[in-house]
Amino acid sequence: MTSLESFSLLTPELVLLGAALVAYLGGAFAGLRQGWLVAILGIAAAMAVSGGQPAGGAAVASGPVSIDGFSIFVRWAVLGIGLLLALVQSGDIFAAAVSRGPGLHRGGTCEEAGTFLVMLAGMSLVGVAGDLVLLFTGLELVSIPTYILLGLKRTDARGQEAAIKYFFLSLLASAVFLFGATTLYGIAGTTSLAGIADALQAAGGTSTAGIATVLLPIALGMTVVGTAFRLAAVPMHFYAPDVYEGTSPGNAALLSTLPKLAGVVVLGRLLALGITAEPSPAGIGPAAMAHLDLFWQLTAILAAITMTVGNIMALWQRNLRRLLACSSIAHAGYLLVGVAVAAAAAATQAASPLGDVAAAELSWTLGMGGMSAALFYLATYVLPTIGIFGAVAYLGHRWPEWTATSGPRPPREEITTVDDLDGLSGTNPVAAFAIALFTLSLAGIPPLPGFWGKFTLAASALKVDWTSPLVSGSRRAWFVSLAVILAVNAAIAAAYYLRIIAAMYFKSTKRGVQADGGLAGGLAMLACLVLVAMLTVQPRGLLAAATRAGKSLTSPVPAAVADESLAQMSDAGQERLTGKPAIP
Amino acid sequence: MVDLDPKTLLVLVPALPLAGAILTVALGRLLGPRAHWPAVLSIAAAAVAAVTLLVGLGREVASSADHDHAASPVELTPVTLWQWASIPDAYQPAAATGLDLGDDLTAKAEGLPAAIPFTIGIDLRLDPLTAVMLAVITCVGLLVAIYSIGYMHDDPGYPRFFALVAAFVFSMAMLVAASNFLLVYVFWEAVGACSYLLIGFWFRKPSASAAAKKAFLVNRVGDFGLAVAVFLLWMTYGTLNFHDTLLADGSPLPGILGMERLADPSGYVAGGVGTAICLLLLLAACGKSAQLPLHVWLPDAMEGPTPASALIHAATMVTAGVYLVARCAPLYVACPAALTVVSIVGATTALVAALIGTVQNDLKRVLAYSTISQLGYMFASLGTGTLLGFTAAIFHLVTHAFFKALLFLGAGSVMHAMGGVIDMRRFGGLRRVMPITAATFLVGSLALAGIAPFAGFFSKDEILASLHARGWPDAHTEHHDADPHEGHAGLDLPAAAAFQAVSFRSESDGSAGGADESASTFRTLYWMSLFTAFLTAFYTFRAVFMTFTGPTRVPDEAGHHAHESPPVMTWPLIVLAVAATVSGWWLFSTHALADFLAATPSLTAPAVAATATPHAFHLDLALQGTFAAVAGIVLAAAGHFGRRSDGPQPERYLGPFETLFAHRFFIDEIYTALIVRPLEFVAMLSAWFDRSVVDGLVDFVARIPWGIGAVVRRLQSGLVQRYAVAGALGTLLIVLMLAWRLRG
Question: Less packed terminus of chain B by CB within 10 Å, N or C?
Fold first, then answer.
């Protein structure tokens, strides 16, 4: 099946791999030292060859590759996040170069940059995969470079411990995911996602449907748990605090963003197995129905547990990176809310009377926004997160407590705890302001992007089945409770986010921050700051892109018909109807 | 500059002062004593842009006007900078939701689409009303900013002051340029915030911070009215935009003040809902424009720097209420009852404030009460609901902006020279010390008192005429075809032969029934206004005589300051004095302003336009007004001219009334006893309840997550085997649960 056409569809990924080769070979044989420059140029080149959204939203499939609006969004997200991460990562290098303390590793920038590029390529492949094998390969192409990066970055015991922990647990997760994927193959007899979807949706009574019903819990449960590791969601969340704590800010930024994107993508693809593209009079099969039902129940429960566990764990953390790790667990929970909403809305739609286009339309506008909300939320989560880690990388070290009488001056200490940020507003006002803005956004304070993200998620959850009565145990009751849990969690989260701000603005310290992390981290911080500010005043652009992407994944209605409701805000609609211009 | 697209100019008018404010904040410390440059230059550029817009729009109006005085609406297509946020399908017309909101609402909801999105756009509009407001705001703002260079020169908060002034000009420009009610609300609050910060500019002075707090809190009462009015408008009309918009499906959504609704004779809700909206808007206007019963904050606001008082609390911000009512003219015209309330509030405020003003000894407080009183005139005029009333109010707004800014800056000049002393009893005869200030102050006083040919005379005359026309509609109709020199006396002024003294037409047919009932009300209001004109002249010249005549005395605080102010302060005075002298005559004789304003879309609504009358000058009214003013001046001269200002005050003959006026009708005391004290008591109770009961509960709830966290943290042992086991067990649990769900 694989043909030249498939490769032509993968040009951006191939460019990334090519840049990785340049970095590897150049570093090994040509004495290249500017690995991260290569990485940034490679990402820029990949951006240059990436197309926009396909016209009309039609998917292009060739071999195992399937390009639709969703994968285009993912690809651009990967490249954009990659660019910011490359800046933070190169910030680490400067930090390593000036650090006197043990542990931070110095050379090897080219190898790291190459590995990072391979990882981006893998991540992008996950987005375009239309086949279980390619999907799994893509995931592994993310995981293996991550092990390398974790191991390369720090050579102290903590860093090694983090790398080993991540390695073992990631292997476990991959194995679990693979088992689930194999079971899916067992159900359908094909690895193509479209084929599996067809098998699941086959009308009732066929033998396939029977097998599917038996195997579905295993397939679904194990693939979702395998994916939960990428998201850092319950029950595979334990590694996050330990690993974040032990690694560099750049790696922590990487771990808290790219795998989450992978997780959302995989969950989206799994969910889409139950959604039919062409409604047929016979309706979708019982297996697909069961798939959707189990999917939303599972993800809703995991969402509720994950966000609560993440936030409650974060309350106790004094270590800045552990705290952010716990918060990233909580954010995985928020993301799962969107996925659950999308699945529930798909289930509603599948159960609605056939041919009722209006009902289908309504259910889209009311609930299918879940996937879009998750993608939008992901973006509003990723920017401040990278920004904070960029700021931490930029700040680098601080002076320990020392007076002239207390003996020789101890070496500088890396910024690790929240207390290390004490009084930052006085010493580094720009960084303090940026971190404050990022944490406020993560906490969901209006009108920052994080608020719009949580608002979209909660609104989409409240819209599930919103015409049906609110009866205990009904789908609507589930999602209303989920929205309430989300709101309560946002309140809990404010407690520890505000602690960071309180440390920076209301405490004073005699220990100056070094700000020796190099300009690149600061640059990433400023870039995120600008992007966050832009999203604050103008969230609609991103929201519209996320809506298109989410719709291309989950909407059975051709994109041309289901023009997003946001189009109502088009500028053309604002034109005056009457009245003449006053001054020609 | 002239070739710039008007849309660009419209955006520049608020954008430049905003940039100036940001620059001042960013570079303030760096610029030091030159910190005024960003603000002054940006406001100057904004003033140029605003005047360019005004002239351009004026040409457009002149070219489109036909000869029947039936002005056709002129406005610029609203500029949408960006859509800030939007909620699809937010509005379900009452019929669709099944809510019973009364017949009025359901009637309006018919013909609207099933669901309307709620969009918040940053829309700017330009029509004659906005253009006039923008020009006044930026021009007065510029003069005040220049004056402040001298006035504030050694203040430690120098950059802060200019940043605030620029921020205020930005907010005020946005307020009058905004094309939807939500944006109006946002900048309504923004100007309030700027005002708060400027009143409390010397925040170390307890009286200043108390005054700032008072202004803010009293304004909140009005803001509450605006907020509820905005909600009601949204529920009634399904949009908050002034202009018409297109929905996604191409169907039109008529804006509240858009052409479609204006053209529709039944476009506006009357009855309970309409009246409620209008009265709530009036409450908001009362807060911002210091009308009864929310006027109490303005006299205290004089604690701020004098230029801020001139800019915000005399010339611009306090006119926001007048602007709001004028902008919503079609809404008010649909509700005659609300209109009458506007007039009653206005005339009563004018009278009460003028009475209080007669016994004040603080020069700035005299001016503060005169501001309240003059704003009351504007409201009285707006409440007539006629085109003449609306344009007269804006006319008075413009002339008042000039002469009141002049008076305030003059008072500031006095205060500057007297070393911060502003009690008129402590100085006198200052005309010999500061001749320029004295001369310009006299010009401003003549304008305020309404003596021809100064500006206030013409605008006040129009206001009196609008009230007279409502009070005696017959006097204006019976002699419709008669010789203008008989009956109701008109006058052909030789200097303006183009004047055609034709009498007024009466009320529009729509509210003719109410006209008879309200005529007696308006008669009372007319006499009240006339008496107020007398009082105005009295207290103004009382201040003039106390300050500038009599033996020359300066307080000890003055020190070496007791001399004429520097040129940077006197030049704005001179410019404003010229404006206060010629603007009224010029605008009145050419009808430029009235014709221009009549092309405002809101004022071209049939109900408003039907009340249009030919321009006229009424000799009898002018004589009555002048007589009242001259009587006031004579009385003031009898009491104060040439006497020591710290001598016995003639006001003592007022007896118990003096106590009443001096204590401002005890309104502050009544508020304290009826509102502040009970609220303080409730607050004390709630504080106790909050501390002991709520906090205890909250602390308990807050400890729950921490408690759980302590347990969860135990699980986080750091041992990778345990993590793996937990993950595997979790997987098993999930698979089993799913299988169980599938069976069940």
Answer: C
Q: Rounded to a whole number, what is the distance in Å from the CA of B438 to chain A's nearest CA?
A: 43
B168 — pLDDT class (breaks 50, 70, 90): very high
B252 CB near a chain A CB, below 8 Å? yes
- Residue in the block written with tokens 């993200």: A453
Within B111-252, where are the H helices? 128-151, 158-177, 181-199, 206-237
Please report which helix (H) or strand (E) contains residue B85, including its range: strand B76-91
And the tokens for B324?
């709001």
**Contact status of B711 with chain A (Cβ, < 8 Å):** no
pTM to 2 decimals? 0.65
User: Both tokens of residue B437?
Assistant: 């200030």
Cβ-in-10-Å burial (0-12, 13-18, 19+) of B737 comes to middle
Q: What is the pLDDT of residue A260?
A: 93
Interval B550-563 mean pLDDT: 76
CA distance A17 to chain B (A): 33
Residue A477 has pLDDT above 50, yes or no: yes
- Judge: B727–A225 Cβ closer than 8 Å, yes or no: yes
> What percent of chain B lies above the pLDDT cut of 70?
87
For residue A397, how far is the Cα from the chain centroid? Answer: 29
pLDDT mean over A327-352: 88
Q: What is the DSSP letter of A513?
A: B
Q: Residue B115 and residue A153: Cα distance in Å, rounded?
A: 56
pLDDT in tens, B207-223: 888 888 888 888 888 88
- Identify the residue among B29, B72, B84, B720 best suited for mutation to test binding to A, counting A beta carbons within 10 A and taking the highest: B720
- C-alpha separations of A351 from A282, A554, B58 in Å: 12, 15, 63
| B710–chain A Cβ distance below 8 A for any pair | yes
pLDDT class of A386 with cuts at 50, 70, 90: very high
Pull the structure tokens for residue B160. 């802060």
Give the CA distances from residue A91 to residues A100, A109, A157, A324, A529, in Å, rounded to whole numbers and listed in that order.
16, 11, 22, 19, 17
Please write the tens of the pLDDT for every residue from A19-64.
999 988 888 787 777 778 888 899 999 998 887 655 445 567 777 8
Q: What is the pLDDT of residue A49?
A: 86
Helix (H, G, I), strand (E, B) or coil at B300: helix
pLDDT of A558 over the 60 cut: no
Contacting residues of A for B77, CB less than 8 Å apart:
575-576, 579, 581
| Residue A574 to chain B, least CA–CA distance (Å) | 5
Best A574, A575, A580 member to test B by mutation, with max B CBs in 10 Å, is A574
Q: Chain A partners of B260 at a C-beta cutoff of 8 Å?
A: 577-578
* Cis preceding linkage at B254, omega within 30: no
Interchain contact, B706 vs A316, CB within 8 Å = yes
Sequence ranges of the domains in chain B: 345-393+413-658, 670-743
* Burial letters A383-412, b for 16+ CB under 10 A, else e: bbbbbbbbbbbbbbbbbeeeeeeeeeeeeb
Rg of chain A in Å (alpha carbons): 24
Amino acid (one-letter) located at A386: I
Q: Quick check: A565 and B75 CB within 8 A?
A: no
**Amino acid at site A83:** L
Which chain A residues are Cβ-neighbours of B706 within 8 angstroms? 315-316
B651 vs A: CB within 8 A: no
| Residue A108 dihedral angles phi and psi, to the nearest 5° | 70, 25
Q: Is B301 helix (H, G, I), strand (E, B) or coil?
A: helix
3-state DSSP call for residue A458? helix
In 3-state terms, what secondary structure has residue A462?
helix
Token pair belonging to B46:
């904004």
B173 contacts B14 by C-beta, under 8 angstroms: yes
Whether the CB of B57 is below 8 Å from some CB of chain A: the reply is yes
Structure confidence by residue, pLDDT tens digits, A207-219: 666 677 778 889 9
